UniProtKB/TrEMBL annotation:
Superkingdom of the source species: Bacteria
Name recorded for this polypeptide: Probable ATP-binding protein YheS
Keywords: ATP-binding, Coiled coil, Nucleotide-binding, Repeat
Disordered: region residues: 526-548
Coiled-coil region list: 550-633
Matching CDD domains: ABCF_EF-3
Species per Swiss-Prot/TrEMBL record: Pseudomonas abyssi
Pfam families reported for this sequence: ABC_tran, ABC_tran_Xtn
Length: 637
């Protein structure tokens, strides 16, 4: 187990932990939460033996193998699959000794080394490495490319694959989802759930934490606080504690009043009813969870646009792609004020292509794009972080957009993004990715957009900034098109989902949970489509024998199919029960003092149903995988 006893940890003049205590048992999966600079990464360094405690102790079993995700890439000339295999240092050591023994023709040593290689799983290592790469979104062709040919985000995926390749008893992952799309995140969730060792995970993705960890360690006031459950349970528990503080209550009330004002103004208007209903759901969530974020340094809003157009954008029979090669065809869409759309779709299907085309940064191959007279786009994409002037400060960046505005007004606005004190006048050259992302969002928010095109806006953002962005987007009255791997952000800020797949863009009438199942089926179809064609010269089979074999196959498949169907039926049943509880929680009278017991009961039921839904989805996916594997086996027999 990991035992931390009266630990004091200091980096320079800053004391991160003071007399902190914590015990984690082998096999536990734990999420680490805390503000930037609270000491999460320093704890990782301590566990890896890179730094020593200033006082107290931190101990782990001496024989534990530790794997971690590197933040830098140096072996640029290695191809991708070899780079991933390098993560298994013992494998490389055995292979090196084998090469030496072969060169020196040491027959006896070769026998022992091949036995050692076999016991270590060395003969299947290449296949396992390629499976990891495929799960993280790499194509077969990309596995052979050199590391230096990949962009920074894809190199981080290689580092993650290398960490997963390393046999370990303790796995340390620092923001593994930052550069992943939703496809890869869902795959990683499954992988980590089946990981047999102890997992310590730093992440700002609440759904990812809920899916993977069963404990949360919160870094707060230089101490370590252990909470049972995933992020949602932690948030509820902490909210209950902080709700007793008057300052928490006052800040929460101010946010509630803002959202209630929106609901009161627009709920009765047919054109705004859907958005108002979305805000009402968000308000219910805020009443329960708002106090957990009372100490957030972020509080901002998107300045209201001066004018609107109807529609803002109108794309007719669009053909979208790069260098004349179409990725999306026959795209027809119209964005009106108030539209709030989340884009879903497999990796590489064209979500970013659509965003870029609508933003005007990627010319159409065909079709017509009409823009409204008063269209004002706020476009966020990862490349915009690189377009910031490295020598300019946050204040100078904003002053260039508003040269006539008073200095104090600009400072107050940037303060909502936590640019304060000396930091507001420092050049962005040495800013972190999170600080650059916050500045890019601040510049967009200042310019009064009436259409937001957001492509992965939460990359690099911590939990508190994500919460502030969610609140700001909920209050934003313009239109929005959002691509994000943060399912909580999609769920809490959009009213409609579009599916980008198979070269088309179409309305998706299901929810995010259904999309997870859709994605699993899509992967199966892709795998089947990419399977090698059967030989055309196959011998003829007697028709009677063929029918008998088909009957036997159906008999073997029937139990698995029945189990999968039963799980899906149970999943639908529990989902309906959960929906009933959530509808009950929408009753505002439930939050009166005399309904406290019923509120607690409903919240407990909601937690139980959500956990049951997550488990049923996992079991259903596993049943589908087993069914597919048997189908392939029977098909090959």
């Amino acid at each position: 187990m990991i035992s931390i006893d009266s630990l004091t940890l200091q980096r320079g003049p800053l004391r991160l932990l003071e007399h902190a205590n914590l015990t984690l048992h082998a096999g536990q999966k734990v999420g680490l939460l805390g503000t930037n600079g609270a000491g999460k990464s320093s704890l990782f360094a301590l566990l890896r033996g890179q730094i020593e405690p200033d006082a107290g102790s931190c101990s782990i079993p001496a024989d534990w193998r530790i794997a971690h995700m590197q933040q830098e890439v140096s072996a640029l000339e290695r191809n991708a699959v070899d780079y991933v295999l390098d993560g298994d240092q013992r494998l490389r050591d055995i292979q090196q000794r084998l090469a030496t023994a072969e060169q020196q023709e040491q027959a006896e040593a070769l026998g022992a080394l091949y036995a050692e290689l076999d016991s270590h799983g060395g003969f299947s290592a290449d296949a396992r490495a390629r499976t990891l790469l495929a799960g993280l979104g790499f194509s077969t062709e990309q596995c052979e490319r050199r590391v230096g040919d990949f962009s920074g985000g894809w190199r981080m995926r290689l580092n993650l694959a290398q960490a997963l390749m390393c046999p370990s008893d303790l796995l340390l992952l620092d923001e593994p989802t930052n550069h992943l799309d939703l496809d890869a995140i869902l795959w990683l969730e499954d992988w980590l759930r089946s990981y047999p060792g102890t997992l310590l995970l730093i992440s700002h993705d609440r759904d990812f934490l809920d899916a993977v960890v069963e404990h949360i360690v919160h870094f707060e006031n230089r101490s370590l606080h252990l909470y049972r459950g995933g992020f949602s349970q932690f948030e509820r528990t902490r909210a209950e504690r902080l709700a007793q503080q008057q300052s928490a209550f006052e800040k929460q009330q101010a946010q509630r009043e803002h959202m209630q004002s929106y609901i009161a103004r627009f709920r009765a208007k047919a054109s705004k009813a859907k958005q108002a209903q979305s805000r009402l759901k968000a308000l219910e969530r805020m009443e329960e969870l708002g106090p957990a974020h009372v100490d957030s340094p972020f509080s901002f809003s998107f300045r209201e646009a001066a004018n609107q157009s109807m529609p803002l954008l109108d794309l007719h029979q669009g053909t979208l792609g790069y260098d004349g090669k179409a990725i999306l065809e026959q795209v027809k869409l119209q964005l009106a004020p108030g539209a709030r759309i989340g884009l879903l779709g497999p990796n590489g299907a064209g979500k970013s292509t659509l965003i870029k085309s609508l933003a005007g940064s990627l010319p159409l191959i065909g079709g017509e794009l009409k823009t409204g007279e008063h269209l004002a786009i706020g476009y966020f994409a990862q490349h915009q972080l690189d377009s910031l002037d490295p020598k300019a400060s946050p204040l100078l960046h904003l002053a260039r957009l508003a040269p006539e505005e008073r200095d104090q007004v600009l400072r107050n606005f940037l303060g909502g993004f936590d640019f304060k004190g000396d930091r507001i006048e420092e050049p962005v050259l040495n800013f972190s990715g999170g600080e650059k992302a916050r500045l890019a969002l601040a510049l967009i928010a200042w310019q009064r957009p009436n259409l937001l095109l957001l492509d992965e806006p939460t990359n690099h953002l911590d939990m508190e900034m994500r919460h502030a962005l969610t609140v700001a987007l909920q209050a934003f009255e313009g239109a929005m098109l959002l691509v994000s791997h943060d399912r909580a952000l999609i769920r809490d800020t959009t009213d409609e989902l579009w599916l980008v797949a198979d070269g088309r863009v179409q309305t998706y009438n299901e929810d995010l949970d259904s999309y997870t199942r859709w994605l699993a089926q899509f992967r199966q179809q892709q795998a089947a489509a990419n399977a090698p064609e059967p030989a055309s010269s196959a011998p003829k089979v007697d028709a009677k024998a063929q029918r008998r074999a088909a009957a036997e196959q159906r008999q073997r498949l029937a139990p698995l199919k029945k189990a999968a169907d039963k799980l899906e039926q149970e999943l639908n049943r529990v989902s309906e029960l959960n929906a009933e509880v959530e509808n009950a929680l929408a009753d505002s009278s439930l939050y009166e003092a005399d309904s406290k017991d019923r509120l607690k009961t409903l919240l407990s039921q909601q937690t139980d149903y959500r956990q049951r839904i997550a488990q049923l989805e996992e079991d259903w996916l596993q049943a589908q995988d087993e069914l597919e594997a048997l189908q392939q086996e029977l098909g090959n027999s």
